[in-house]
């Protein structure tokens, strides 16, 4: 027997293990030696199907070209010369992640934070970022993002940035580094100094790392700054502002960033040149007080003054003033000030001129003028004097002075009877010299004062008394009558009696004081009226027409008025005053006897009474006369009070239609019967005494109004009201129409002054009786004839609709209404189609309705063409239209059917039902197509019905059939492995079936599959949180005969529900059947870690940090092992916003709200809540938003909350701000003269806001002088105007603020203007009246001057000029005035005009000087006015006149008096 030997194939290698060097892409495998093996082949297959093979005769193998980021499956096959073993069990090699690529970096210079990004590396779980300098400084951090921020950079360094990718096993090699340069370091050692002569600031410093150039900055305290640039360590800045304390800093820069400023140095610039230099002379000590405005940077000042003749004076001070002493009198000095500090001095100030005190003058002579009581004096010229002031002073303190620029002067207005000491002082613009030596001067005696002439009315003599005159030795009293009568007396005392006065004469009385010097001191003229003469020829008579008593008499000499007294027999007296010779008594009592006398009077005395005259007055007019109608019988009743002396009464009535009626009575009433209706009667009541029968009383009486006629009433069907008309009735002021139902249950009225009105609010279905009444103020007419009206029928009640869905009809019904003849039904569809039906019963049907329509149905009651109001609307619908194009699609994986159809008109929902003959049904309901019917049986024919449904009906259904696929494979099982994304599917194998296809469909209809020739298959890459339906089939046709019924399985998922209030989260995950505990760890972006350990599949984390993204890691632990972590992430509640700021725009009533960005926020919600609870909102994805619609004047609390889309933060702390009103606009100023002052009338546009008040602020310089500042502030005003007096020649700024409880606006734009100029001063003329040159001093801010003549009623313009003088002819200084003008208006006029000194008059005695001036001008009378018994005369002043005599002529027929 032949023997054969053979060797079986090598054994399968066992104990296969793998080893890796991740970073170098090296992988190795080892195994146990296999029997029969001569060599081995190791095969590594990557997930990208890339294959690496290694053949060796040892039990290990190394690959050096494995791909990064790949997971390899390794099998070992043993080989001999003929055979190969089966592959060994597999092991895996996980390679390191790929090196990150495409690194990009940038630096945020402001934040000093660098950012780095790169492309993601597959399989990397996180990244390690390294930043390192050449000097060894290193920063390293990790992140699970593809970007990061680095904030730990040192300044002035070059950093090399690299990234390594890390998974759970390996770390990649670092990426190719890129360079990022940090911001430069701040410079150090900063110093600075000033070059005084060139005014250049020089700054130097020590260089800093990373700097390419430097910027030196000089900053003032008010925020202004200057800078210079240099690439070295020094730079200079010319033209530095004087007198400033500068803070000096240096900033280093490179091409991208600036460093922080260096430590600050301080620099003091050159002191500023002093300004506003002013000199105030201390006139008493002849010293100059020099002051100036503070110079920035000055520590001390030096003042130097030099006169025009070379005299010097100086002083130094650390204050803002200094005194120059030992000044020579009468010199012109020029002064300058220099500011100094420790290092530099300023330039000298602008020169300021001043004068020292003038020298003292010496008086020459003094002469007294008796007529003017003035002293004429002269003196010698004094050095430095511009003008002189002579002063005369009494021991009692009275002063008279005169000022002139000559060396002589007249002291006017000396007090009489005084001894004056006279001195002279020289002056310039600012100072006066010491006074000269005193000289005594005696003034004229005083005129007697308080002259009181008192007439003795009984004796017709006058006692004249007066106060003693200072300096008088004796007195003369003179009385001159206007009709040439004269009386006189002399005395040494203070009284004198004038006798032999004539009655009715007027005397002018004066007293003259006499001493040894002058006799011109006459008192004021006093007028004395002698006693008037007694009136003669007194007569009296009764005026019957008026009932008055007229009295007359002859004129009495000297009488200015008369008093007439009428005394009745009952003791009643009446008085009548008159200034003529007649008097009319209108107030004497009627029916009495009177005695009448007349007395003549002037202002002082009255004459004796005249002889008495007696008479009787007229009867009295009837009193308390009343008239009224007796409305029921057309009778008028007149009544009155009884009077004495009346014999009878007569009443007459006259109607406008010509009707007359009268009655007589001796009692106090009378009746007027049968008065016509609607007439206004004029009544006259006469009291009769037989002599004057004209004491009548008049009144009116309105008779009863007539009743209305032709009354008609008609129905207004649309409003169910009645229009009532009638014809006008005489005497009616208004009408009342009354409608009453026949059963009396309802009454309605209307009134009108016209002949129509509408009765409204009538009850439906009723008949009303209508009548009309005429009315006046007291009576109502009898009722008119009646009219009748029937109201509209009532609307149907209880309207109901029954939808007859199958017949396409609706049946409408209502309650019976006997008042209606028939009913009208209207149905309005949603397509605006109208359908109607009519019925005389209680129901109606509308047929042939289209499907899918919605109707609003109303019903009307109709009678005689009048329709009722519609009934309440009732809604209904017809059946929906039958769904069309219904069809189904079979999903064999889940054994469900998807049914679709077209939209049905009128459908609110759809009902789909699938049924089979065995009784199994399935259905679904939806509001729209499609609809899914699940869990159908295998291999079964189903009939599908699709029905449309609304609130009232269901449509007919549409049908179709669908057959499900067969299920020959009856038993399958599916299970998930713990911590796995795979599902293991198992089934029972069938004979002759080479391949099975497993398909899983998720609830989102995504598919995954696998195939196998055995009885199981593993579905990979399943997603957590899904519901899968799984079937097994023998081909790709899922509906083939050999397939399984669907198997449903659910995968696990991690869900996170944020807990917004506690700033936490509730985490839930799928339960693991083999797990005994779970560890949940949450790691925040800021490094905060929170964890919990639990035996159930949920856990709650609280008190997490706001605005952080947390990474979750869940690990399940069993008895022997711990699962891989399941990871997820979520965002916590965003942080509360802070740093709120609001800017309110009053013009748009909006607010711009801003805040600091909140960590973790994706959106913000702003809120402004007013004090009354109303709120405004805005939302934004950036840290600011605009709120509109703010109420002007309201106060709001502003707050913000942040949101991350899931949770909202709490609201920020509120910021309170008010929507203050805008500042006013359209400011206006109008200057107006009131009295002797000018007022500014200021106005502006009102601000549209509630409860607004206004505050006016005015600043200015009085007479344009910087030293006389003006500041005016009003109180808060509710009105849009303000008035205030303003000084003349003053520029001003005027602003207005508005305010209310919400706040105060900014000041308005200022309105700048000037006031009216001051009146020109020092007005004087040269020449004479025929031709004169009038000149004056300049008035500040004046643009034009005007000269007027004011001798007439209206002033006449003589000259208009921009200069300071005018040439005038026919000039009169007493009737001339000068004004200054500008755009704001005209000044107050100046009439104080001086001229050349005239000829001097010497003292004269009174006797020789009384008629000395025979060449005086004739006075020109200007006005003559009469007021009562007074006559007022004015005339033009006459030069040199001391008194005037007024002559009045009274023109009479028989005589004339002067």
Provide a descriptive summary of the structure in words.
The longest helix is centred in the last third of the chain and has 4 residues, at 1406-1409. 0% of the residues lie in helices and 48% in strands. It is mostly beta strands. A hairpin with a 5-residue loop joins strand 10 (126-132) and strand 11.
Task: Give a brief description.
The chain is built from 1 helix and 120 strands. The strands form 34 sheets. Strands 38, 39, 41, 42 and 43 form a 5-stranded antiparallel β-sheet that branches. Strands 67, 68, 70, 71 and 72 form a 5-stranded antiparallel β-sheet that branches. Strands 103, 104, 106, 107 and 108 form a 5-stranded antiparallel β-sheet that branches. The longest helix is centred in the C-terminal third of the chain and has 4 residues, at 1406-1409.
List the helices and strands and how they pair.
Elements: E1 17-21, E2 26-30, E3 39-46, E4 51-56, E5 60-63, E6 71-79, E7 91-94, E8 104-108, E9 113-117, E10 126-132, E11 138-143, E12 147-150, E13 158-166, E14 178-181, E15 188-195, E16 200-206, E17 213-219, E18 225-230, E19 234-238, E20 245-253, E21 265-268, E22 278-282, E23 287-291, E24 300-307, E25 312-317, E26 321-324, E27 332-340, E28 352-355, E29 363-369, E30 374-379, E31 387-393, E32 399-404, E33 408-411, E34 419-427, E35 439-442, E36 449-456, E37 461-467, E38 474-481, E39 486-491, E40 495-498, E41 506-514, E42 521-522, E43 526-529, E44 539-543, E45 548-552, E46 561-568, E47 573-578, E48 582-585, E49 593-601, E50 613-616, E51 626-630, E52 635-639, E53 648-654, E54 660-665, E55 669-672, E56 680-688, E57 695-702, E58 709-716, E59 721-727, E60 734-741, E61 747-752, E62 756-759, E63 767-775, E64 787-790, E65 800-804, E66 809-813, E67 822-829, E68 834-839, E69 843-846, E70 854-863, E71 866-867, E72 874-877, E73 887-891, E74 896-900, E75 909-915, E76 921-926, E77 931-933, E78 941-949, E79 958-963, E80 972-976, ...
Parallel strand pairs: 109-116
Antiparallel strand pairs: 1-2, 2-5, 3-4, 3-6, 6-7, 8-9, 9-12, 10-11, 10-13, 13-14, 15-16, 16-19, 17-18, 17-20, 20-21, 22-23, 23-26, 24-25, 24-27, 27-28, 29-30, 30-33, 31-32, 31-34, 34-35, 36-37, 37-40, 38-39, 38-41, 41-42, 41-43, 44-45, 45-48, 46-47, 46-49, 49-50, 51-52, 52-55, 53-54, 53-56, ...
């Amino acid at each position: 027997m032949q023997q054969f030997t053979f060797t079986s194939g090598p054994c399968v290698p066992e104990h296969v293990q793998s080893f890796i060097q991740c970073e170098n892409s090296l992988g190795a495998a080892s195994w146990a030696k296999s029997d029969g093996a001569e060599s081995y082949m190791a095969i590594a297959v990557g997930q990208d199907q890339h294959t690496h093979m290694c053949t060796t005769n040892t039990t290990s193998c190394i690959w050096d070209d494995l791909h990064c980021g790949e997971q390899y499956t390794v099998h070992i096959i043993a080989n001999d010369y003929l055979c190969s073993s089966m592959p060994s069990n597999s092991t895996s090699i996980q390679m390191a992640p790929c090196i990150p690529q495409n690194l990009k970096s940038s630096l945020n210079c402001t934040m000093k934070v660098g950012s780095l990004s790169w492309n993601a590396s597959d399989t990397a779980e996180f990244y390690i970022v390294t930043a390192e300098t050449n000097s060894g400084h290193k920063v390293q951090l990790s992140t699970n993002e593809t970007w990061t921020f680095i904030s730990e950079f040192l300044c002035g360094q070059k950093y090399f940035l690299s990234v390594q990718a890390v998974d759970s096993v390996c770390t990649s090699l670092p990426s190719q580094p890129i360079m990022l340069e940090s911001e430069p370091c701040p410079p150090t050692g900063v110093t600075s100094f000033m070059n005084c002569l060139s005014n250049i600031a020089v700054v130097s410093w020590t260089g800093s790392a990373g700097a390419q150039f430097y910027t030196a900055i000089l900053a003032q305290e008010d925020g202004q700054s200057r800078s210079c640039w240099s690439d070295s360590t020094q730079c200079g800045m010319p033209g530095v502002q004087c007198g400033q304390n500068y803070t000096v800093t240096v900033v280093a820069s490179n091409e991208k960033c600036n460093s922080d400023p260096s430590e600050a140095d301080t620099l003091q610039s050159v002191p500023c040149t002093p300004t506003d230099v002013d000199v105030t002379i201390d006139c008493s000590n002849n010293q100059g007080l020099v002051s100036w405005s503070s110079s920035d940077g000055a520590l001390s000042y030096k003042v130097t003054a030099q006169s025009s003749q070379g005299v010097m004076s100086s002083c130094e001070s650390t204050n803002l003033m200094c005194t120059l002493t030992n000044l020579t009198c009468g010199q012109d000095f020029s002064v300058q000030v220099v500011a100094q500090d420790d290092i530099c001095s300023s330039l000298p100030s602008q020169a300021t001129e001043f004068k020292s005190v003038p020298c003292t003058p010496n008086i020459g002579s003094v002469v007294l003028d008796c007529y003017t009581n003035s002293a004429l004096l002269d003196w010698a010229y004094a050095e430095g004097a511009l003008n002189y002031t002579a002063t005369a002073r009494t021991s009692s303190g009275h002063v008279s002075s005169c000022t002139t620029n000559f060396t002589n002067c007249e002291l006017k207005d000396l007090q009489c009877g005084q001894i004056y000491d006279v001195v002279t002082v020289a002056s310039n613009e600012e100072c006066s010299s010491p006074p000269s030596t005193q000289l005594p001067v005696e003034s004229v005696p005083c005129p007697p004062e308080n002259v009181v002439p008192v007439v003795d009315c009984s004796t017709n003599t006058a006692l004249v008394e007066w106060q003693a005159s200072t300096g008088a030795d004796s007195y003369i009293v003179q009385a001159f009558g206007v009709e040439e009568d004269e009386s006189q007396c002399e005395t040494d005392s203070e009284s004198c009696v004038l006798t032999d006065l004539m009655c009715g004469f007027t005397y002018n009385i004066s007293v003259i004081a006499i001493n040894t010097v002058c006799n011109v001191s006459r008192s004021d003229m006093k007028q004395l009226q002698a006693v008037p003469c007694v009136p003669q020829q007194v007569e009296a008579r009764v005026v019957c027409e008026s009932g008055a008593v007229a009295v007359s008499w002859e004129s009495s000499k000297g009488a200015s008025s008369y008093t007439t007294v009428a005394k009745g027999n009952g003791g009643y007296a009446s008085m009548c005053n008159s200034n003529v010779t007649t008097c009319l008594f209108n107030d004497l009592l009627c029916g009495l006897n009177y005695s009448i006398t007349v007395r003549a009077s002037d202002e002082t005395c009255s004459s004796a009474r005249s002889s008495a005259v007696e008479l009787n007055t007229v009867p009295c007019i009837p009193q308390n006369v009343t008239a009224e109608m007796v409305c029921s019988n057309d009778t008028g009743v007149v009544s009155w009070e009884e009077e004495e002396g009346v014999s009878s009464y007569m009443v007459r009535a006259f109607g406008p239609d010509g009707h007359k009626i009268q009655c007589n009575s001796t009692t106090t009433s009378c009746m007027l019967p049968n008065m016509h209706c609607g007439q206004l009667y004029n009544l006259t009541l006469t009291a009769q005494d037989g002599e004057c029968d004209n004491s009548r009383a008049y009144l009116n009486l309105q008779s009863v109004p007539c009743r209305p006629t032709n009354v008609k009433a008609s129905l207004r069907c649309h409003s169910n009201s009645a229009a009532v008309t009638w014809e006008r009735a005489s005497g009616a002021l208004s009408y009342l129409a009354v409608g009453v139902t026949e059963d009396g249950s309802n009454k309605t009225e209307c009134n009108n002054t016209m002949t129509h009105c509408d009765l409204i609010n009538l009850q439906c279905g009723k008949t009303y009786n209508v009548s009309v009444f005429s009315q006046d103020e007291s009576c109502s007419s009898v009722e008119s004839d009646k009219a009748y009206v029937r109201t509209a029928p009532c609307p149907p009640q209880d309207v109901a609709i029954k939808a007859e869905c199958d017949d396409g009809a609706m049946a409408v019904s209502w309650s019976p209404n006997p008042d209606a003849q028939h009913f009208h039904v209207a149905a309005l569809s949603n397509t605006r189609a109208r359908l109607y039906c009519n019925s005389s019963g209680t129901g109606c049907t509308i047929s042939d309705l289209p499907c899918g329509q919605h109707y609003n149905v109303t019903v009307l009651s109709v009678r005689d063409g009048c329709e009722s109001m519609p009934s309440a609307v009732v809604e209904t619908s017809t059946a929906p239209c039958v769904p069309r194009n219904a069809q189904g699609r079979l999903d064999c994986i889940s054994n469900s059917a998807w049914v679709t159809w077209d939209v049905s008109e009128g459908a609110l929902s759809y009902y789909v039902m699938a049924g089979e003959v065995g009784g199994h049904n399935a259905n679904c309901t939806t509001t729209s197509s499609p609809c899914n019917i699940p869990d159908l049986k295998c291999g079964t024919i189903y009939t599908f019905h699709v029905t449309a449904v609304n609130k009232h009906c269901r449509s007919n259904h549409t049908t179709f059939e669908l057959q499900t696929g067969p299920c020959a494979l009856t038993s399958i099982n599916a299970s998930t492995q713990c911590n796995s994304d795979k599902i293991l599917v198992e089934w029972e194998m069938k004979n002759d079936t080479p391949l099975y296809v497993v398909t899983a469909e998720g609830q989102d209809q995504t598919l995954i599959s696998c195939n196998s020739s055995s009885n199981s298959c593993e579905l990979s890459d399943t997603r957590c949180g899904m519901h899968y339906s799984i079937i097994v089939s023998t081909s790709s046709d899922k509906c083939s005969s050999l397939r399984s019924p669907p198997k449903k399985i659910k995968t696990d998922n991690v869900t996170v529900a944020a807990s917004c209030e506690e700033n936490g989260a509730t985490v839930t995950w799928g339960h693991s059947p083999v797990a005994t505990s779970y560890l949940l760890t949450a790691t925040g972006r800021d490094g905060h870690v929170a964890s919990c350990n639990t035996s159930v599949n949920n856990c709650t984390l609280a008190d997490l940090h706001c605005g952080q993204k947390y990474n979750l890691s869940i690990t399940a632990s069993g008895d022997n092992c711990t699962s891989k972590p399941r990871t997820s992430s979520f965002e916590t509640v965003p942080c509360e916003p802070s740093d709120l700021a609001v800017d309110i725009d009053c013009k748009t009533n909006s607010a711009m709200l801003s805040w600091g960005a909140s960590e973790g926020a994706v959106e913000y919600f702003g809120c402004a809540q007013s004090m009354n609870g109303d709120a405004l909102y805005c939302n934004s994805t950036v840290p600011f938003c605009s709120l509109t619609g703010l109420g002007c004047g309201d106060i709001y609390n502003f707050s913000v909350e942040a949101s991350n889309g899931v949770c909202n933060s709490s609201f920020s702390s509120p910021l309170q701000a008010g929507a203050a009103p805008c500042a006013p606009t359209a400011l206006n100023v109008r200057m107006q003269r009131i009295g002797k002052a000018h007022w500014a009338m200021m106005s502006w546009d009102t601000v549209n806001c509630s409860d607004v008040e206004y505050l006016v602020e005015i600043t200015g310089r009085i007479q344009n002088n910087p030293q006389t500042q003006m500041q005016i502030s009003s109180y808060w005003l509710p009105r849009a105007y303000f008035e205030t007096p303003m000084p003349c020649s003053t520029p001003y700024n005027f602003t207005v603020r508005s305010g209310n409880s919400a706040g105060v606006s900014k000041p308005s734009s200022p309105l700048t203007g000037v006031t009216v100029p001051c009146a020109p001063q020092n007005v004087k003329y040269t020449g004479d009246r025929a031709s004169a040159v009038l000149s004056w001093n300049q008035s500040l801010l004046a643009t034009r001057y005007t000269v007027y003549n004011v001798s007439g009623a209206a002033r006449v313009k003589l000259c208009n000029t921009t200069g300071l003088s005018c040439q005038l002819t026919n000039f009169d200084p007493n009737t001339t005035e000068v004004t200054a003008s500008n755009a704001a208006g005209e000044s107050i006029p100046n009439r104080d005009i001086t001229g050349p000194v005239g000829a001097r008059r010497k003292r004269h005695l009174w006797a020789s000087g009384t008629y000395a001036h025979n060449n005086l001008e004739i006075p020109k009378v200007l006005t003559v006015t009469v007021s009562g018994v007074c006559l007022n005369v004015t005339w033009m002043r006459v030069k040199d006149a001391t008194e005037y005599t007024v002559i009045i002529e009274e023109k009479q027929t028989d005589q004339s008096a002067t």
